[in-house]
Write a structure and sequence with these properties.
It is a single chain. The chain is of the alpha/beta class. The protein has a single domain, classed as NAD(P)-binding Rossmann-like Domain (Rossmann fold, 3-Layer(aba) Sandwich), CATH 3.40.50.720. Strands 5-4-3-6-7-8-9 form a 7-stranded parallel sheet, with helices on both faces. A two-stranded antiparallel ribbon has the order 1-2. Strand 4, helix 2 and strand 5 form a beta-alpha-beta unit. The longest helix is centred in the middle third of the chain and has 26 residues. The relative contact order is 0.14.
């Protein structure tokens, strides 16, 4: 909630968040935490929510929208729909993403383009659609990047490049909004190896040796929980982080130390 002065009295306006990648992993953990804290949430995903999650979302005043983040033609209508149904837009979390291995010699152009389309284009389109609704009202954007934007992996050139692009895009948006004197902050979060469906699927495809190597690289010695990343995101979205913009926050158990 946020307090607003109106005609000599104080009223409270419910904050509204839009979270992509909301059907699983970090996106799911984030919108659940925000909903528990009184935020009206629009969870967005190309997949579907489990019945229990959909009921939980609805019981907290939220909505689920099925949407492909790569789809430029419909992004504006998605954002407009959220504003119309939930009363505005104060927060955006871009958690939709995909991961695929393949060295610079091995990865196909199709796989490269798909990674860029989901991880970069999807983030760009969501930000472009949300910012007009935040110009006067104020807002906070958190883009999910990765330690892969900061530390190279010879088997992940497309993923590394896409997450580095998200990092740079985040800083561009932060500076642009500040120079426009719009009260919009934008930051990136850079997790290490998180216990998500996407990561589990990656390990299944690439074998236990890959899992062991990734775990050894993370000094704390375990996978990060989605809820741990969600807590960092929620702080960046909150008024407690009111002077934080254009920054990158790493949560990796010491992987990049």
């Amino acid at each position: 909630m946020v307090s607003i002065e109106m005609s000599g009295r104080t009223t409270r306006r419910q904050k509204v968040a839009m979270v992509t990648g909301g059907a699983s992993g970090i996106g799911l953990a984030t919108w659940r935490l925000l909903a528990q804290r009184g935020v009206a949430v629009a969870a967005i995903d190309l997949g579907t929510l489990e019945d229990a999650e959909r009921d939980f979302l609805a019981s907290h005043g939220g909505i689920f929208l099925k949407h492909d983040v790569r789809d430029h033609a419909t992004w504006k209508s998605v954002a407009d729909n959220v504003v119309r149904r939930l009363g505005g837009l104060d927060m955006l979390v871009n958690a939709a993403g995909i991961l695929q291995s393949g060295s610079i010699e091995e990865i196909s152009l199709e796989a490269w383009q798909r990674m860029m389309a989901v991880n970069v284009q999807g983030t760009f389109l969501a930000c472009q659609s949300a910012i007009p609704h935040m110009r006067d009202r104020g807002g906070s954007i958190v883009n999910l990047s990765s330690v892969s934007a900061l530390k190279a992996d010879p088997d992940l050139p497309a993923y590394d490049a896409s997450k580095a692009a998200v990092r740079s895009l985040t800083k561009e948006i932060a500076i642009y909004c500040a120079r426009k004197n719009w009260p919009i902050r934008c930051n990136s979060v850079h997790p290490g190896v998180v216990e998500t469906r996407m990561v589990k699927s990656f390990f299944t495809q690439n074998g236990e040796a890959t899992r062991d190597a990734w775990m050894q690289a993370q000094p704390i010695g375990r996978l990060i929980l989605p809820d741990e990343v969600a807590s960092m995101i929620a702080w960046l979205l909150s008024d407690e982080a009111s002077f934080v913009s254009g920054s990158e926050y790493v949560i990796d158990g010491g992987l990049t130390a």
